[in-house]
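Async update (no meeting this week)

Hi team, since we skipped the sync, here's where things stand on the single-chain job. The sequence we agreed to prioritize is pasted below, unchanged from the tracker. I ran it this morning and attached the output directly underneath so nobody has to dig for it. Comments welcome in thread, and please keep replies under the output.
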Amino acid sequence: MIVEVVTGAEERPQVRVVDTDDLSRLHLALGQVTDEEADEALREAGLGQLQDDGTGLLDAAALRAAAEPDADVADWAERWDRMVESARSGGWTSDDGATLRVHIESAASG
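Output:
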């Protein structure tokens, strides 16, 4: 699953959740937007924020609510739970599990 922040209509950054059925990976992809624009767009979408230039923080419940309606696999909920548990065991969640820490991939670095 990928959370993208890309330039949208009228040059305003937009947040999209794509590849919702691929729960073997989760990252934040930034298009041609500044860190400030990406942080603001994530906050406005209610999905999270940037922690630093390499890490984002995503609200797990909001991400699930955004992604699940687009899921096409029957066992998506079980896959989601496994992904979150894997993140938790790897130290990629907040203590309460409400926030997922994710790597940022920037178009500028590619």
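Quick observations from my side:
The first helix runs from residue 35 to 45.
The chain has three helices and six strands.
Reply here if anything looks off.
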